[in-house]
Amino acid sequence: MSRPIKLLILIILSLSVYFIYQSTKETNIKILTLADGLSLGINSFGIKEYSYVDYYKDYLEKTNKKVNLIKYSKEDLSIHEALKEIKNNNTLKRDLLESHILIINLGYNDLVYKMSLEEDITISELNKIVKEIDKEYKLLIKEIRKYYKKEIIVIGYPKSNKEDYYSNIGIRKLNKVLNTNTFIDTYSLLYNRNKYFSNPNSYYPNRNGYLKIAQELKQN
Q1: Cβ contacts of 210 within 8 Å, gap of 6 or more
Q2: Residue 170 near residue 111, CB atoms below 8 Å
Q3: 3-state DSSP call for residue 92?
């Protein structure tokens, strides 16, 4: 076989590999969640079902995309714990580097825990708590940006099922802290608790609620 023909074959093979890679890159999507119980699909009665990110994955797969969904999620995960996990977990660092979509759903556990430490909560104390969370959240985003450079989708928190005066004020203040990237405002989205929460005493929405969040994700 002559040298020009060998060179031509090599060029054709190289181009074939390149186009196959480009085609695969466009259809294979890796979604990573760094989140609490909402991303686990816990329903209004405490049972794990389908979450908003599972519905979102199904939607993408219907558009002929192959989706690899990885959940770094835990029901009681806090911002501080998520930050520590990134610093110490090399697998998570690699997943951040390789992911196409990152969804963060953190902060509510921090708010509830810090509020529980106060015997008599006031607006002044609440502002201090939110300021602490803001500082921790910025550190988390800074650490994430060492490995992940694409768009971050942040899921906010819905209206509280609690009747006390400060719970919803705290959630609204928390959502303002979180609203720095592509933000899904579930406080407005799921405001109708009768429709989106089967159990009035539950923090977790029903299937309609998770579907509603997924529909918002589809718009991004």
Answers
A1: 41, 49, 50, 51, 52, 54, 55
A2: yes
A3: helix
Q: Tokens 């509510």 sit at which residue?
A: 108
The two structure tokens encoding residue 212: 């509603």
- The SS3 call for residue 69 is strand
**Is the separation of the CB atoms in 102 and 144 below 8 Å?**
yes
Q: Which of 95, 104, 93, 90 is nearest to 68 (CA)?
A: 95
- What torsion, rounded to 10 degrees, do the Cα atoms 108, 114, 115, 119 define? 160
Q: Are 80 and 13 within 8 A, CB to CB?
A: no
Kindly list the domain boundaries of the chain, sorted by start residue: 28-218
- Tens-digit pLDDT profile for residues 73-124: 999 999 999 999 999 999 999 999 999 999 999 999 999 999 999 888 999 9
Q: 32: part of which helix (H) or strand (E)? A: strand 28-35
3-state helix, strand, coil split of the chain in percent (to 5) is 55, 15, 30
From CA 139, how far away is CA 16, in angstroms rounded?
A: 43
Q: Answer whether 0.90 is exceeded by the pTM.
A: no
The CATH fold of domain 28-218: Rossmann fold (3.40.50)
What are the tens digits of pLDDT across the range 183-198? Answer: 999 999 999 989 999 8
- Residue 28, strand partner residues: 66
d(CA 133, CA 188): 22
Number of neighbours of residue 212 by Cβ within 10 angstroms: 20
- Name the nearest CA neighbour of 99 among 81, 72, 77: 72
